[in-house]
Every structure is written in structure tokens, then in C-alpha cells.
Design a protein that fits this description.
By secondary structure, the protein is an alpha/beta fold. 40% of the residues lie in helices and 18% in strands. It has helices spanning 2-19, 35-39, 84-92, 119-133, 146-154, 174-186, 193-205, 214-217, 239-247, 266-269, 271-285; strands at residues 43-48, 54-60, 68-73, 96-101, 138-144, 162-168, 225-230, 253-258. The protein is globular and about 55 Å long.
């Protein structure tokens, strides 16, 4: 019995380390250039979630009026502010940009990360706000890392005016990503850690892991999807890109493996080609 109690306490601390605000995520995300975000005029949008969390996002109006809006979703350890260069990229293409802070990150509330799965409902609600703001809008989705997984998890619930989705270095499932991290970072087995973490997540964070899998969320997807991944990504393994591409049953899909790029570094590895391919994909599917 004592062993079980000690194991449970240990798992509680390990869960909080990975999931709680201010835990492991604070060691990630780096120090990107945020000048564009900090100096560009924007509107602050808010939403109150069903579990009573206040979320915030920033809306950057295009310089010339347009009905095309891209929602840019950050990764684990990131924030809307840290996505400044990606927001600038889409803004320079002539699009409106909505940049949310996901739950437990940036200026948004919440004690536990949604790992992309809990965030999917929040993203749909941001889209509803976009449509209320401009009933004639067309929406594109872009996400990186956890944000890319969130994009792929959101697709089944996306409104009809979502024209495309771009997922840069996203994982296939929460279970698969946690299994990989336990092995590579701590040399720990998935069992019984992940089943216990799943229980903690259900109790503390309000969601379980089992449904968060692109095998489920992409199997009926018809929204055009562009999957990008670095060939040397060890944090979210490159194999996930091939699995996500296979899991997507729609015909309008593309896959680009960026040579020599590490995790979330594809744009830095080849910035001109990255912008060209992303821009071409967006332009092709926006009407």
C-alpha cells in the first residue's frame, strides 16, 4: 500500500510538471523576436469558457480590407506574442490575423494546458467570434507543434467557412507524444505512467487523452491540409508527419519534410521556401 501511495504522489508531481502552468513549459519557447507583435496595433478579444476560464486573443486587421482571416495557434511553452514572426508573415500576405493565447499560456487564464485537445473547443469559439465580427469571412488555420495538433484535432468541428489548415510539426496523439517524451527525456516506460496521468488529467484538467488522436479527427476530413515537419525533429518525431498524412483521408493534402530542420525550426531553416509554400497553399484555397 505504501508503494502505491508513494507512486501516486510521484505521479501527481510529474503530471503537474508537464501539465500545470509554470511547469516544464516555461523552459521551452525560447526568446523569439516579438517586435512586430509589440508594435502593431491590435484588438484584444476575450472569451469565457464553459469551465469558467477567461481566454484572450489579439486580432490584427489587414492593412487593406479583406474577408480572409488566418488564426495562428502557438505551441507548448509558446504564446501569441511568441508567434510574432508567423503572425507578421500572414499579415504581410494581406490577411487579418487572430492570435489566441491558449489556456494556461500567455495572457489567458487556466492552470493546466489543453495539449491541443481541450483547446479545440476554444479555437472553434474563436472562429465563432471571427464570424460574428465579419459574417462574410473566410478562415484559414495555422498551428505549430501543440498548436498544429490542436489544428488537426479541431478540424471535425470547424465551421464551413474554414478553407484550409496548415500543421507544422504536430503530433498524432497525446498518448504517442507523452510516450516519446517519457522515453527520450526520462527513460521511463509509458505504463503505468500515462494511464495514471490520464486519470489526473480528467480530474484536474477536465479532459482525457484517449480521443485525442488524428486517426479519429482526420479520418473524415475534407478541409485541405498542409503538413510540414523537420527531418531532424526529435521533440515531436518526424514519423508523426507521415502518420498524420496517412490518417488524413481527404484528397486535398500535402506533406513537406524540411531537410535538416529540428523541432519548430522549418521556417528558420528555409525561410523563403517556407513562406512561398505556405503562401501558395493559403492563396489556393482562399476563394
Amino acid at each position: 500500500m505504501a508503494v502505491i501511495i508513494v507512486a501516486g504522489i510521484g505521479m501527481y508531481y510529474l503530471f503537474n510538471f508537464a501539465f500545470q502552468r509554470g511547469g516544464f513549459s516555461t523552459t521551452l519557447g525560447g526568446h523569439p523576436n516579438t517586435e512586430w507583435y509589440d508594435t502593431t496595433q491590435s484588438q484584444t478579444w476575450t472569451q469565457k469558457t464553459k469551465d469558467n476560464i477567461t481566454l484572450k486573443a489579439h486580432y490584427f486587421e489587414a492593412e487593406q480590407p479583406t474577408n480572409k482571416t488566418v488564426i495562428v495557434i502557438h505551441g507548448y511553452g509558446g504564446s501569441a506574442r511568441k508567434m510574432s514572426s508567423y503572425e507578421q508573415m500572414f499579415h504581410n500576405m494581406g490577411y487579418n490575423v487572430l492570435a489566441p493565447d491558449n489556456r494556461s499560456f500567455g495572457d489567458s487564464g487556466g492552470n493546466y494546458t489543453g495539449y491541443g485537445w481541450k483547446d479545440r473547443t476554444d479555437i472553434v469559439n474563436w472562429m465563432k467570434q471571427i464570424n460574428q465580427y465579419n459574417p462574410h469571412t473566410e478562415i484559414g488555420m495555422y498551428g505549430i507543434s501543440m498548436g498544429a495538433a490542436a489544428v488537426m484535432f479541431t478540424l471535425p468541428e470547424a465551421p464551413q467557412n474554414v478553407k484550409f489548415a496548415i500543421a507544422d510539426c504536430g503530433y498524432t496523439s497525446i498518448n504517442a507524444e507523452l510516450t516519446h517524451e517519457l522515453k527520450t527525456m526520462f527513460n521511463l516506460p509509458a505504463f503505468p505512467i500515462i494511464p495514471l496521468a490520464n486519470i489526473y488529467s480528467q480530474v484536474l484538467a477536465g479532459y482525457g487523452f484517449d480521443d485525442a488522436n488524428t486517426k479519429n479527427t482526420l479520418k473524415h476530413n475534407e478541409i485541405p491540409l498542409f503538413i510540414i515537419h523537420g527531418s531532424k525533429d526529435n521533440f515531436v518525431p518526424t514519423k508523426f508527419a507521415y502518420e498524420n498524412y496517412k490518417n488524413n483521408k481527404g484528397n486535398n493534402k500535402e506533406l513537406w519534410i524540411v531537410k535538416n530542420a529540428k523541432h519548430a525550426q522549418s521556417r528558420l531553416e528555409d525561410p523563403q521556401e517556407y513562406q512561398r509554400r505556405v503562401g501558395d497553399f493559403a492563396m489556393r484555397w482562399f476563394e
